[in-house]
Amino acid sequence: MNNKDDKKVFNQNKMTISVQSKTVNEALVRSSVAAFCAELDPTVDQINEIKTALTEAVNNSIVHGYDGDIKGFVHIEATINGDTVHIRVQDQGKGIADVEAAIKPFYTTKPDQERSGMGFTVMEAFMDNLKVVSNDRGTVVEMSKRIKA
Ligand SMILES: Nc1ncnc2c1ncn2[C@@H]1O[C@H](COP(=O)(O)OP(=O)(O)OP(=O)(O)O)[C@@H](O)[C@H]1O
Ligand SMILES: [Mg+2]
User: Fold this and answer.
1) pTM greater than the 0.85 cutoff
2) Is the pLDDT assigned to residue 44 strictly greater than 80?
3) Half-sphere exposure (CA, 13 Å, Cβ side) for 112?
4) Which residue has a Cα nearest atom 19 of ligand 1?
5) What are the φ/ψ torsions at residue 88 (nearest 5 degrees)?
6) Model confidence over 20-35: pLDDT tens digits?
7) What is the pLDDT of residue 49?
């Protein structure tokens, strides 16, 4: 690739990472995506917000989607488009029966496990957009955040 081509794609970048469904992998995903976002020069607050939202999504796939079954995989795709980072978290777990109810604050199907039902609320608060698509073959969570200069 010559310099001219490099300029054309200057503000576009993409990464994917797939991890086994184990909570120990949350830190790996968090750090990888945080490092990927560095080129947008985010503030410490912005990077912490992205990390927290991402962790909630990945944790949901592991805890709810795969229900503790470590044979599953969680697929994370991060894309930089201009000054915005788009993050997609996908699992092939059991899915969410009622997405509209699930994204409401304090809704949890695991109240016994000290879950507060605030994961989606945190994602909504810290990111600019949140989209959840789910069926009995799995769940896709998409979110984006603009990093203003
Ligand atoms: N990937 C997923 N697969 C299956 N169900 C999910 C998934 N993500 C979320 N859910 C369902 O949506 C509910 C709400 O998720 P949310 O993250 O808001 O709360 P929580 O995980 O129960 O609690 P917290 O995140 O506060 O520990 C979950 O209790 C679960 O029933
Ligand atoms: Mg959660």
Assistant:
1) yes
2) yes
3) 2
4) 117
5) -125, 130
6) 999 999 999 999 999 9
7) 98
E-assigned strand segments in 82-137: 84-91, 129-135
Euclidean distance between CA atoms 125 and 52, whole angstroms: 11
Ligand 1 pocket residues where CB is under 6 Å: 56, 60-61, 64-65, 91, 93-96, 102, 107-110, 115-120, 139
| Residue found by looking up tokens 């605030």 in the block | 118
* Ligand 2 center–CA 104 separation, angstroms: 11
Domain count, the chain: 1
Query: Does the pLDDT value for residue 8 go beyond 70?
Result: no
> Token digits for 28?
């790996």
What is the amino acid identity at position 88?
R
Using DSSP, state whether 11 is helix, strand or coil: coil
Cα dist from 125 to 4, 30, 53, 106, whole Å: 39, 18, 9, 14
| CATH number for 132 | 3.30.565.10
Instruction: Name the band, by pLDDT with cuts 50, 70 and 90, for residue 114.
Output: confident
Range of the domain at 32: 3-146
